[in-house]
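Appendix C reproduces, verbatim, an entry submitted by the partner laboratory led by Prof. M.T., so that reviewers can inspect both the input and the predicted structure.
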Amino acid sequence: MSVRFLSTVAAAALCASSAAADYTLHIVHINDLHSRIEPINKYDSTCKAEDNAEGKCFGGYARVATKIAELREQLKDENVLVLDAGDQYQGSLMYTTYKGDVEIEMMEKIGFDVMAVGNHEFDDGPEGLLKLVDGVSFPVISGNIDVSQSNVLAGKVDNHVVLEVGGEKVAIISALAVDTSETSSPGEAVIFQDEIESLQADVAALEADGVTKIIALNHVGVKKDMEIAEKVAGVDAVVGGHSHTKFSNTEEGAMAYPTMVGDVPVVQAYAYSKYVGHLTLTFDDAGNVTAATGDTIVLDASVAEDEAIVARVAELAGPIEEMKNRVVAETAEAIDGERGSCRAVECAMGNLVADAMLDRVKDQGIQIAIQNGGGLRSSIDAGEVTMGEVLSVLPFQNTLSTFEVTGETIVAALENGVSKLEDGAGRFPQVAGMTYAFDASKPAGERVSDVMVGGAPIDLAATYGVVSNNYVRNGGDGYKMFRDADNAYDYGPDLADVTAEYMAKMGPVKIMLDGRITAK
């Protein structure tokens, strides 16, 4: 645990006031920026310069910096914390080219007070997280990971932090999704503990030290955040990430900002730099929240871009601009790669990528393609398609993997893929060369039916050739049944290149949903 001091003009006023005075805390927050250093389009992928000039784009670090600076100026006489709920890493060419250097530089320009570790901070192993922790001047915390056995991270990640803000101690605790070992690469030396048990232990320790204002800054997803708000006594507010959930009081279909679980407000600010959240909490003298208000703020063209950051981003983009802007294909219509589609049902992007994989290796006796929906990170709009857009969809530098497994193993893999539908998990299987049905109302492990390969019912005892990506083949997203596959080869071409080449030979791309996945 570390203690820091944030001095504000309000501090002197608060200390001079009655001990029974209310205390107001402003929490400005983002989450899941995913390397969207440059502005994004309506599909959450990198926006074209001409579209940005026409006011069609959102976010990017230059707008995030402007909005947070504006809020700090507006609240200069108030108590303010600026928090990041994790996943700065992974999602654009800025990350794949510079491996965290740009994210670290931009976070330092803004000056966050605390960041939670996200699962994608482990995408380049413990060393990737170490680079971030050592590169920024503020605490990067996670309470439910034990790094003491790691020769890379031991002593580097605090489980919580106490800040003195306006004369009051405010604690930030944190939890990271326990399935990070399946969704990223933390390594065996990083040990995960139950989120709720870990957070409750931290609260107990803090309360024993007299700290009564406790904020949970989590990277666990909104479903778990709601459970934490309900079950972890002593938490005053939950600021989350991981599920990319939209909270807004003005946008249709969004969760209310904040959403109250009993007396505990829960918030999140979608993802990809499109929003900044602003939560205002009022505490009584006993440290209880008596009011919670606020909303997310959309960073559209009305938010000016910080000129110094725009210039720096242009400099950083120079070496990758030619490759990023190379036109590789054309689409007849937009291709849906949205998170809500590709992690729950058959989606157009899933069909495209799975078809591309199978097409590439069909002459090798491969019959089936399986692509995890969480590996698809954006949509593509209609018209010319650049390599940068393809890489926004497939940013992980995954390679094609071919292997052989039995029909029984394939069915087990599909069951794994639909086992966490309720959580919007990335394991949902997009497929080619096969069809299947699932019933989400049934217990996990009993949901899959009607599996067909090449138009015939799957033979559980037969051996099938499968193509996937190296992440899935090596057990990512819960696909552990593929680790011991026969004749496995994980070093095929990059999945983004395979997809771009497939799109190029298709002519104007138009993807149909053909019923290969049926939700009962």
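The first helix runs from residue 9 to 16. Additional entries are available on request from the coordinating office.
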